[in-house]
Write a structure and sequence with these properties.
By secondary structure, this protein is of the alpha+beta class. It is 34% helix and 26% strand.
């Protein structure tokens, strides 16, 4: 694993800390609240000890998490149609799947988690909006513009077509259905 792959694997705060450590180690320079400072030879061991202590705390707390989401599996009736939706409408990145049987497709959904589409018969016919997958995006307007350009229907939580819900916490959200009628929430709590 390269240093860039390792940093990509880490969370954002851990990435920042790891880059600070490398910068201090290689260039004897660090940044604190946007202020850069050189580390003198006398300060170097003490500064490195502080950075390593913080790094150990961050890595140990994330290493001992009790549970994490590995994947979400969705039962679909037409894999190709669903793949088109998740790749082209939601712009998810397809990842390697081990089965190679034409009945599975896997997508990266961030944070080390995946969405597994599994084609099969007898897809449930009744689907409630309360049971939904939620994806967060950085820009709601761009996403809504994409939906409109594709003439893809979306609605608010209350079911008003073409309307965006503004939650009490300021998050904007819309609801769409995938090709099998499953509800998806799209929000900007990115």
């Amino acid at each position: 694993m390269t240093i860039f792959e390792t940093l990509d694997f880490l969370g954002q705060s851990s990435k920042t800390l790891a880059l600070s450590f490398l910068n201090a180690l290689l260039f004897r320079e660090y940044a604190f609240f946007g202020q850069k400072a050189l580390i003198s030879n006398a300060q170097f061991p003490k500064t490195m000890k502080k950075i390593l202590t913080i790094a150990l705390i961050l890595f140990s707390t994330s290493a001992f998490a009790q549970i994490k989401v590995n994947h979400i599996a969705v039962h679909v009736s037409d894999l190709k149609k669903s793949m088109d939706f998740y790749q082209n409408v939601l712009a998810l990145q397809e990842i390697e799947e081990p089965f190679k049987d034409g009945l599975h497709a896997w997508y990266d959904i961030g944070g080390g988690s995946a969405l597994h589409l599994i084609e099969g018969k007898d897809v449930p016919s009744e689907k409630s909006k309360v049971n939904h997958l939620c994806f967060s995006i950085p820009d709601m307007q761009t996403f809504v513009d994409n939906m409109k350009s594709r003439n893809y229907p979306f609605e608010s939580w209350a079911g008003v077509s073409g309307e965006i819900t503004n939650r009490v916490d300021g998050v904007k959200q819309i609801y769409i259905r995938d090709p099998d009628g499953y509800w998806l929430e799209i929000n900007d709590d990115f």
